[in-house]
Amino acid sequence: MTDEIMMEVHAIKDAIGDRYGNNLDALFKEIQLGEAKLKAAGVQILAPPADLKNLSNTALQRTRFAHR
Question: How far is Cα 14 from Cα 21, in angstroms, rounded to an integer?
Fold first, then answer.
């Protein structure tokens, strides 16, 4: 990655931190509120997989690592 990309990533991270006062609990509550609004609008929110042992065999993992 270039330095410009890393600088932009850090700027975004810092902006998010400033918005929530570097409070992860506040950020998490905001995420939960967003999920609740999406559910109310009829969007299906999927739960994370319960069995992490088989995570490497999911379609997501196969897609993410297929190009390596």
Answer: 10
Domain count, the chain: 1
Listing DSSP states for the chain in one string gives: --HHHHHHHHHHHHHHHHHTTT-HHHHHHHHHHHHHHHHHTTPPPPPPPS-GGGGGGSHHHHHHTTT-
Q: Tell me the residue range of the domain where 55 lies.
A: 3-64
The pLDDT of residue 34 is above 70:
yes
Q: What is the pTM of this model?
A: 0.58
Contact 20, 30 (CB under 8 A): yes
